[in-house]
Design brief:
about 45% helix; Rossmann fold; 2 domains
Amino acid sequence: MAKQITVLGTGYVGLVSSVGLADFGNTVTGVDLRQDIVDTLQSGTPTIYEIGLEDYLQRNLEAGRLSFTTDGAGAIADADIIFIAVGTPPGPDGHADLSQVERAARTVGENLNKYKVVVTKSTVPVGTNRRVQEIVAAASGRTPGEGFSVVSNPEFLREGKAVQDFFHPDRVVLGCEDTRAREYMEDVYRALYLIQTPFVWCNLETAELIKYASNAFLATKITFINQMANLAEAAGADIHTIARSMGMDGRISPKFLHPGPGYGGSCFPKDTKAIAATGDEFGVNMSVIKEVIRANDEQKTLTARKLLRLMGGSARDRTVAVLGLAFKAETDDVRESPAIDIVQELLLDGAHVRAFDPEAVENFKTALVGEGPFGGGLNSDLQERVAEAAAQRLTYCTDEFHALQGADALIIVTEWNAFRNLNLERAAALMTGRVIFDARNVLDPENVRARGFEYAGVGR
């Protein structure tokens, strides 16, 4: 039976979930505090870039299964199920900031007029769903399990492929501890049952840790292959052959064995810090994860400095084309993107930078100087210096060839398909210099060198 669902939060997870749940036949109301965001979504325009999202958004709006509002209280009162999909950004000590989750839980409790299932979709540390249960109970005066139920349903959406992942997940994890709530969730996800999607039913704490364990392991795998690439490069070996051979081992698999400038995005940096902090809280030293965090930060710095070495030790008064600003292809997300560190380093070194990304330019502009939702990481002095340098020496370009005009060097930071098939003859005609640093290994080294360029990749 289709359900009346309210989703609190229309960010990355909330919006994709709202659209997906509506497409499953449920009636869904997405809630956001900002009227401008609600108006934009209600008009059929997504507030994030994600392949396929606009079509699904418009289809479900037109079908009347999906709507958006700022009236959280009304939407909660009308719902059978409330999904909490608000942000959990990292705090100064690495712990997840749960203030938005707690506010959402309190609002749910204050408007609880009948039995409802409260589903935490946000990524939260172990113990959070028990806290949500306490908050809803205190605000509503109702007993958990009778007056309401809390379910942990972590998301596993890859940015760039989130719509695909929602409709064809590897598994659905549900921390659910009573029969009535399970029946509700089976109704919500009945479409996935029909395609035999694996479901993992467990307690709240297990569901919370599954999410963090998954992301921490993938971050570890990325960091491992980056360190192996650095060793291969120093020793004269080929990391691609190494990674391909490793991936043939069924115990390892080839996924996430692609060297580059370090991981970024909304999940891996935040979640690795959170699980390390949670370990400290429980008296468990998550030493492997702590080293992954340190090594990943180092990889971003090494990438920037390698480019400077290729340019003779400094890029002062020279021009560098930077292709790719998002942390990965097929998204406009620049949170913790390696491009931020690289462009900051170039600007502080005195370079002129010509930057292009198909989707992420506007987000990058604020993130670079530590402002906006994707900003952070700079002290006030460096923030001021980077902002001043960007105003004088950073040009945002309309396409990759515009960025290449007059460039002494090129660095490819994000693996957009357009960059994989870069027209090297045209690049040679536009560029002043001949240095290409392929930080994603998307180009054919022999082909690049045959066009007269000095080529450098990662682990090659």
